[in-house]
Fold these 4 entries.
Entry 1:
Amino acid sequence: MSKNYTQLNLVQRYQIEALLKTGLRQNLIAKQIGVHPSTVGRELRRNIALRGRTAGDYVASNAQRKTDIRHQQKPKQVLFTAEMKRHAIKQLIVDKWSPELISVKGRESGQCPISHEWLYHWIWESKHGNKRVDRAYKKLYKYLKHGKRRRKRGNSKDRRGVIQNRVPIEKRPKIVSKRKRLGDIEVDLMMGKNHKGALLVMTDRASLHTRIKKLNGKTSDEVTAAIIKKLTNSSYDLHTLTFDNDKAFTDHQEIGKELDVDTYFTRPYTSQDKGTVENRNLLSSKAGFSAVLEKYQIATPKYITYHEGINLETIKKEFNFPILLKVDYSFSGIGLKMVEKPEDLSTSIEEIHDNLNLVLQEFIQGEDIGVEALFHEGKLIMYNCATINGYMYNRFSFTTGRTYYRDERIEKLLTELGEKIGLNGFASIQYVYCNDKDIFYLIEVDVRTNSWLPYGRFTGYNFSDGIRSIFDPTGNHKLLTKPKPKNTKVNVYIFDRDIRRCVKNRDYNGLLKWVTNHDGRWKYIPLYDWKLFRRIVSKIIYDFKQKII
């Protein structure tokens, strides 16, 4: 004999709440509203809060909300049978039908009367899940027409709201694309791990002048305030700001009004519309940089990104030690640690504060080669390469002396690098040459200017000439070369760095070379700027007192 069950409705719950306040017993409340006493007892056990503002009290509205949630989350009858799955798989793989077409035809024939949304859900749950019944279907997503992008329910209409009064990038002045003027800024957000914190990055398209601001989150109010504060006192006039379609840039009109600039938005899912800042972000990331090099088959040390649960024993077996631990988005050797032995790996990782944002990379034994280069839209315009003569502290710190020379192999590598990853502007590049394997390993590409760029005039390759060729409307933007002997080498030193290195390391022979103008070193002393010279001398005297006296 079947039983008919009726559930409490909202009206009955309000009655229970009111009768409880009068002090009536549960059996009398049940009789009053016409249900069994166990129904009232079960209702109170399920829906009386144990903590919070209403702890110990029965609230009808809260009880109804909890009941609705339980109904939504309870297991439902399985309607997608094995026979339906076989039918859907055949049409997806053999007939090359989309889930939408499978759903329409399935309803017509009655063989697979399932909505296309459920089919998408099943395919992606099989890919990402690990249920035994779904393991056979893990590769089904590859047969979708857009297998690399997950279809979101209701994506035909974005219900999160839209950015009002956006101006598409197609209406941006054409002069912006030519990179002929300062003040055309691209803006982007880089999110931290687990969406905790963010970096606001703003890059000028012509000069690659970049401003970076660390944020606690990506709310539109915080992002707007940071952009206005960073750009208000710009040393050059601002003309345009280009954003992507992130909701963090909702207040773009306020930004445009405060800074007196025009704002534009890229096309959806088109990162190349904002390629300058996107490329800069990617090269700033150790993991992103290594992934790019791997994609274009550019020689780089073996690496792996660290995450919780990673098997350190596997790393110890597969990697050749020593290895380097690098904190992602770190600069100037900060956040870098060398691990000499496998048994020290776990301890070294624990010592790094930001170890959930870490890249592990093999350390290549070889000759360090520093390169300063100028690119224009992927084309190599000028370069200087050098072996390293001295470091301020260690191999990962500032260099103090270099020997510049020309190398056709480096020139070829730079040309390919610029074309493959679309470099534009200045780049400070580091290679390590492994003599045993005859391979140049690319270690770093820093798309910022460095202290060695002005010293190009001593090598015969002045970067000022390269800049003039880029902005020359009649120029063909080809590699600038000079008929100089290939075996010519030029020793160059940065005065303050090398003197301080000599003092710190008690290198009296190095100091003597400066005193006696060995290799013509006096030409590197900045006598043209008396204030700068005095400041440098003050630092040297301070170091001398600390180390010698």
Entry 2:
Amino acid sequence: MSPSASSSAVAASSAETPLSQQVATADGTDMMTVRCALYSVSLHDTINCLYGRHQHDYHQHQPRKQYKHSRQDSEKRRKILLAGLVAMLSLATMLAIAFVPRDEHSPRMMFHPLSSMKHAKPQSSDSIRYLTFGSASTWGDGLEDPQQQAYPFLLSSDVHNAAARVGGLSLSAICTQSIVGNHRTYDVIVVEYKDEDADSVIQLAVRLRQRFPSASLVFVHIWSPATHIVYQNNFGSTLKLMDWWHQHHSIRNPSSEERDKSSFLGSFEFQSAILSSDPQRWSFVDHSEESALIESTIQAVGGHILNVPLLSPDASIPTVLTTPSVMSLFQADQPTLLSPKGHQTVAQAIKSLLQQENILDRPNRHALGSWGNGDACNMWYATGDASVLRKRRRASLVDFSREDDGVHKHAVEISRHGGSLDVTNPFEEPRMLYLTYMTAAIQSDSTVREYPRTKISLDGKPTLLIDPVHDRLQSANNDNHLTRTTAVGLVPPGRTVLRLDSLDATSTSRFRLVGLHFLNKGKVPIPFEFEMEPDAAHR
């Protein structure tokens, strides 16, 4: 063979051999690296080239055209894997939100007013159908078994108990429709109230009569020695009964251990102290103005008032406080709460009152009226259900329970960089939007904040600045985080973007939102700010 022929043969052979093999044959450089360096025109191509080393041998022996198709297939596989990864992360996030721990069977959740309907038993029309509102006593606080001992359940085991464990009747009065729902009818509605709840009692009475025109409305006025009796000391200060007792007892028992061991109502020491005190320094708290407003409203809606206990207007306070038949109606260590005997007394008094009415044969017994302008209240503090928030950006549902209390507490936490929520007004007219959020005590060091001040905007327009603190000074015995409900602006029907921007980057915790509500701005005045969620929480 001639040199030229030999040279041509070598050239032909070289043309048929992949370039990467020629380079590797020349100096032994890693073929994968060389191939990627030669064929990749960008960093993106280089990543694709190095995607799978196990594909290297295959590409070595394929024609250039097939290799080009292989690169396209590799790109498709990479995109599919990336899409799958994103889908898995999204699913994991949804599952994490869906399975936030909830106390679905705890008394706290079952008896929360806004979730009580979900757990209420069906009521037969063959028996009296009861609905009860109230505060701690009606809830059954302090009892070993509220569902057996509290007076609502002594009236009927199927009662719908919508009492709030802590707080007054604000929640019941403003969110009555959200609590009761739209499908149930009741024969007897019981409302436990205190004189301090005058505005809420009046609003609740009117709404209940409007919705249930044929129901018997019973208003139970529970008189408590802890809230209705005061003592004037030598310095002219007025002390409530419990404050007087703690002051009196601490003087005689300097040891805190001894003070903690002592009982309160009904104890020999308590009765002796009362009888030895100056009876002229004791007085009843004057609620005559509030009582007159409440009584006139109850009379206007055709309701009944039941006073417990029924006291003689001429009875001296030392006599009342040392009468066993009166003091035994209250818990010895928590005199604001009914004792088991007190619950039995209330239940029996209600039954005696209703004996005068032929409830089951009442005409129009099943009639339902209107909720008026209605309400839409949403709380996820106890339930963990924040599904009303369709879209959340930089806002995460969290469980912020303490490890040692065994009760789950939920909030939507807002990022320190700000976050937004899509909220939907379900009504056909504008409504006032209220937010319920956590607050902490004022710190002794004013530079330290538990929750950040937060600017509120609706559809891009700033409306309000929220400062989430309450007016109780921080101390070793006061780590309570309380809820507050605040009006933040009027929103139109349909979707509104709620924006929350934190202004304190160094706060201990993020802003915690636990509820939102669409309330009527019309005839019945609603305060700008009030205590709505009936509970105190810890961080």
Entry 3:
Amino acid sequence: MTNCAKNRSHDNSKNRPQDGSKNRPDIINPVSLCCVVGKESLKGLLIAKKQVPWSSRVRLLGLLLLLDYICRNLKNGIISISADLAHQFVSKLRKRDNATTITEPLMVLVQIGILQIVRPAVYAHVKASAVYRFGESYCKKQLPLEVVLTPKLAEKRASAPARCEKRLNRKFPWREQLLADLSLVSFSDSARQIIARDLSNKGSENLRRLVSAVDGQDHSVKVSERGQITTSISSCPRALQPHLLLDGEPTLSCDISNAHWGFLPLILAKRLDHVSSEPGREKYMNDGWREHRRLVDLLSDSDFYRIWCADPQNDDERDEKKNILNVLLNSRNEDGEQNFLYRKIRGDFPITFRIIEDIKHNDHRNLSKQLHRFTADTVAAALLEVQREGIAAIPHVDALICQMKNRERVCDVISRQIFVVTGVRCRVGGIRYSPATEHEKPILAVNPVQAKPLEPANAGHLARSEWVLPSHAELSGKNAQTVFLFGELNDCARGVLKPYRPLTEHEQDLLRRKGMEHDPLIIEALNIFEGRSVG
């Protein structure tokens, strides 16, 4: 130190404990990575492709950690990885220095040629991350690297499993509690005899994994690209399911009756909403909503499969019709055309089946993807709701496994989730849903006296109703409940119903000529359809 230099306390190494070897183990023990490019080569590629903000030391190391993860998790030369997962290794750029700068780490690796996109991400009924592979120059070479990580990166790498759990729990809010509930699953004494007998049979690997997971408390939870929740007990044989215990108490399965058929009104409603803005489709819309109401009533008032039986009381015939109808619904259009029962149902609901056949035109699996997604979302929503009430439940395809004492409540929650989405009062666990709860009574029985004054001729909107406006004159003596669909009750409660077309001048004149511009029923209906709350 020169005479003119100041004597600073931090110049003394003993005053910088953060730089000691105890706090910087990565300096002594560099990390071994498996990559396809070296640090300096990666930096050169980034600068050459005008991605200079990514060439800092921290971001270079983050990209190398990301490449290491990709190398170690390749399957058949490809990997499916989300942007959210990539951010666990290196954060996205928050600001661009120019228009050519790429902010996402995966995309910058694509830009410089290290990665190639095999399939873009899908976010529809099937939700899947993008699929990548290494570029031709990198697919056959892997380089062992020794890198020195910054303290923050070293800490993040050490806590990777815990951060992964937090990320998954954030993405699926029911996951953490579900893993806790799975740890409460056990077998009854009577189950051990069944297990001992079946373990000696061929193909008992799934049973061995099930027993190992339950007895060893080593459970897992996965979510398919169609949203279906799979747990370590999803492979439980049917004969063994009645012998499962949850927190030491017997269990049962609350499953949805005719689950796939029950979501057809939702598909019909979505298509009608889609074409509602097209001019000249009024007749199609009106016919479609009338059919929607008939379909909802059919699915709500009886056992759907028994309706098509020659002897509705015959359980064997009912099971046979169930198998046939589910196969026909998800099979190719040509196969359904050859079946008399399929043609009969299609004749009763022509608009619905034209939509279904249009969905299956190029690939018959497109329909099952939608139906699986609707079912999975319903089960996941019901699972989260019962968890918030402190009820332990395990998802199993289109059902929730719960303790017997919680059967009615769990069935009610699943049914209400379906009712809110489709308007169908379905049967879950043998219990038919009744929507007349304290919360829904004001919606089911709209009181005209409580209507907010509104000039309907100037309202200019008609919401999703199965009735054309010229027929509103017929409604003056009907129950106000028929003005809107059951499927829209939840929207009505929130006051967020969307109108689907403006009233024509002819329709407005009709209201005036019929003296209905002050009719309380019409005023209440238009209040609801304008997006105002009832009350």
Entry 4:
Amino acid sequence: MSTGGTIPYELREREQWLVWRWSAARAGKRTKQPVDPHSGELASTANPATWGGYEVAVAACEAFDYPGIGFVFTPDDPFSGIDLDGCRDPESGDIEAWAEKIIGSLDSYSEVSPSGHGIHIIAKGTLPAGGRKRGRFEFYDSGRFFTITGERLDGTPCEIKERGEVLRRLHRHLFGKTEQTSNEHGERREGNGLSDQEIIARAMRAINGSEFAKLWCGDFKGHASASEADLALCSSLAFWTGGELEAMDRLFRQSGLYRPKWDERHFGDGRTYGRATMEKALEGSSKFYDPRSSSLYRYGIRDGGENGLENKDGQPHLRSVQFNEIPDPEPRRYLLEGLIPQGYPTLLHGDGGSAKSMLALSLGLAVAQRGRAEMKWLGLGVGEVGVVLYLDFELDAAEQRRRVMQLARGEGLERVPDCFRYMSALGHSLRETFQAALAECKEHGVKLLILDSLGPAFEGDTEAARDVIGFFHRVMEPFRAAGVTVLIIDHQSHLRSGQRYQDKSAFGSVYKSNLARSVIQVEPFSREEGSLTVRLRQKKHNFGPLATPFGAKLEFGEERVTLHAEELDAADLAEEGTLNAADRLRFALQDEPAYPEELAEDTGIHIKTVRNTLSKLRKAGEVERTEEVDAGGSKQVRLVVPHPNHSKLDGNRDNEETPEH
């Protein structure tokens, strides 16, 4: 890579740089993948947050040994890039005549490509709509990136020249006069005014968003051919763009389905394959998305604007609908089986040192492992894998990177999945941080947001109901509206005299738990050298029974941290206040008979409730009396049938104190 002085300053001064790496394409041919110079994750030519400055890109390239750097073309800059492929002999430097003619006519900054076989030209000017590739020639002015080497071609200018008219003549020569595309009514649609990012976000959080996401990522399984998948994606884009051809074309080129065939002429009238596919999609479309008039539920999304609360015109979008207008809901889905309902906030709380953050990072790794079938975390099924964002308010990037790498090695992974993203809030205001996090979630289709932790992320008094309710309404609701599941890590209240650990709740107002749809407590259970065993208990579940408490053991090493589930024994489960009295007594009696007073002491259940519950269990034939009677006349009982260790229990607490009849 050449020095910065060779690359025009007009490019170097812009924050549109990234690095790139090699990757295998579908057909086995290597392609260049854009990479975020800040994080090392895959970048997007549609997301400026994944780009950086020139010096940042160069530093990342040198530090991490990437093949090179690249520049992203956008509609906001004046540049166009021309790629002449396979036109140069890398040994002699000779250039084929057809390419020399183009280089001479454009007479602007030109450089040798990374392979040495091609030439890249950068000029100022906007390209007409239509074709972008023909044979070994292609050019772009937005939505793509060019590798930049700084190896300027001898005899070409050092500056980037204005060449708009030359670009238009060249386009007409290669692709013919641009024709206006018509829909079935013969009129050109103007679209709905949404940005590319808004279109992608809304399409992904619709009822059929998972199908759109698969096509967008280049997965055409379930379609008869790649061409059928192309048409399916174009039909979806036709709807979401409001039928705007240019937006459809621009978005399709950003998708994983895009390939050179898109720009190939397949018809006698000069139309490209891509043009014909889009026209066919428009011909079959009769409805188009209008964010200004669409029902809240008509397309399966909550149309809440950028902040989740307003429509496109900035007006409150609050109105009633008939229950019969609302589509029948899909079956309840869980991001983590029985514990974390998908699309709703879950609260994870515990004392300091209970490994809450390590558990959350481990769960994030499980969710982020795309391509792994039937993922499990501590024996529980992961309902949907996808992009995870870890929003950090406590530690810095280096420490969290160390932790997640230790956990990844413990899982046998060589690297952290690309779908696991990180954002640090240090040095930024809470408002700025949450706005940026919401934008990231929409841009990348985030499935799980891990907020670590609520204390420093909270503005106001956590003990004031008004402030807590306001936080969930203003800050959490936009994420829910975008279809993001949020796992909130929080500390809990101090232990009061006579209080058990499991009776503690998250610190502050009770509305923290009230407004979460699932609440999970983490209790340190056993500490040994190099290991920690914790107990996880679900204390609230709005949509189903409480899960049976279970254990998890973390073993800490210098290079790796391992995590595995540990089943609690009957005696431990008998003490669990999240289980109802009947289940706790069943567990307490599983090993041996006992007197009611012993059961009350072992389980912490009031003696009157113990006697009342035993009476019910005896009538049901589950418990019977033995021949033993103590000095006070209390009769010993035993379990008739051993109690199975259910994975789910009804989660109701018995607080009846009616004496036994």
